[in-house]
Design goal:
36% of the residues lie in helices and 13% in strands. The protein is an alpha/beta fold and 358 residues long. The site of 4'-deoxy-4'-aminopyridoxal-5'-phosphate has 12 residues, from α4. 4'-deoxy-4'-aminopyridoxal-5'-phosphate binds next to α4.
């Protein structure tokens, strides 16, 4: 606390990102990064762009990347918004579409940035409790609201709803914007972008951070009706015209173009996830069926907080949330086969050591 802070800075409760430790080498399964490197085309394009042109500002509209994404999704360029990671796109969306007076809806167990944005922008919200099995109670979103946001697949559970369920939500909500945060959609879900032309209040947000191995480049985007995109541009151009730098634009273009590499790496992650799910269930874990690049797990005999610490001692980092309803769960990102073999090996060791020892 400092006397120099604005009232706004003083009242915030910022989001806490997963650890990026530097003390030793960990198997990092805590921030849902992709274990595979970006496409070599991406790396080459970034290197080629690192020249004297960096003295010039980048294209504030990211026209070339928008064209590539428009082709990829079968949309028009005017239906695409680009941002510095999907976190920025989400923050701008809260500002562009939600108002203080009318509470928005999102699940009680979900991406923990949503309440942070809501508090920052003074937007009221109502939490919709997930069912006991952590699935989304779709019909609870049929009530009056000032907007809706949820991830699909949800985070940190990995549970995914069908396109039909999303359409049900849209059919019951025509007055306000419905945001589907598809950070993890490429790992097995069906994107709601197919519904964009039918529902002018649908905004689909995606990222290159997960399925395209580019968490470090910070590129996210939104797809929606051109009027929604214009709303987002109004916010962006009132804060920072150049949210994507030259290197990010150059790399992102190649990432979207290299579909073959994207398909092969996301399929590898999916295969590994299925294998790990099976192995963990054999070890007695409850594993929520996941369509994301992580699994959400709980063991009947070992407290999640203890398991988190035991894994950390063995240089394996996973994510633990000390929050109601999920404080006995761990979220484990899907790494390479070798990383997950090490993880399973250590888990096996911990379990067979007769845990919990007091
Ligand atoms: N949405 C969800 C549900 C996430 O888990 C994340 C990753 N923390 C993001 C959005 C943001 O990802 P990025 O800013 O890297 O695009």
């Amino acid at each position: 606390m400092s006397k120099y802070w604005s009232k706004l800075a003083a009242r915030l409760e910022p989001y806490v990102p997963g650890e990026q430790p530097k003390d030793k080498k960990y198997i990092k399964l805590n921030t849902n990064e992709n274990p595979y490197p970006p496409s070599t085309n991406v790396l080459e394009a970034i290197k080629a762009a690192a020249d004297e042109r960096l003295k010039l500002y980048p294209d504030p509209n990211g026209d070339e990347l928008k064209s590539i994404l428009a082709d990829y999704f079968g949309l028009k360029k005017e239906q695409i918004f680009l941002g510095n990671g999907s976190d920025e796109v989400l923050a701008f969306s809260f500002m562009a579409f939600f108002d203080a007076q009318h509470p928005i809806l999102f699940p009680d167990i979900t991406y923990s940035f949503y309440p942070v944005y809501a508090n920052l922008f003074k937007i009221d919200y109502e939490l919709i409790p997930l069912k006991d099995d952590f699935t989304l109670p779709v019909d609870q979103f049929f009530k009056s609201n000032g907007g809706i946001i949820f991830p699909n697949p949800n985070a940190p559970t990995g549970d995914c709803v069908t396109l039909e369920a999303i359409e049900e939500v849209l059919l019951h909500n025509k007055e306000h914007v419905v945001i589907i945060d598809e950070a993890y959609i490429d790992f097995g879900g069906e994107s709601a972008q197919k519904l964009i032309d039918q529902y002018p209040n649908l905004l689909v947000v995606q990222t290159l951070s997960k399925s395209r191995s580019l968490a470090g480049l910070r590129v996210g985007f939104a797809l929606g009706h051109k009027d929604l995109i214009e709303g987002l541009n109004r916010i962006k151009n009132s804060i920072n015209s150049y949210t994507l730098d030259r290197l990010a634009l150059a790399g992102a273009i190649e990432a979207v173009k290299d579909d073959e590499y994207f398909q092969s790496t996301r399929n590898k992650v999916i295969q590994t996830r299925e294998k790990v799910t099976l192995e963990l269930r054999k070890l007695g874990f409850k594993v929520i069926t996941s369509k994301a690049n992580f699994v959400f797990i709980s063991h009947p005999l070992i407290q999640a907080a203890d398991l988190f610490m035991s894994l950390k001692k063995e240089s394996i980092l996973v994510r633990y949330f000390q929050q109601p309803r999920i404080d006995n769960y761990l979220r484990v990102s899907i790494g390479s086969d070798a990383e997950m073999d090490s993880f399973l090996h250590v888990i096996h060791k911990i379990i067979s050591s007769g845990f919990p020892h007091q």
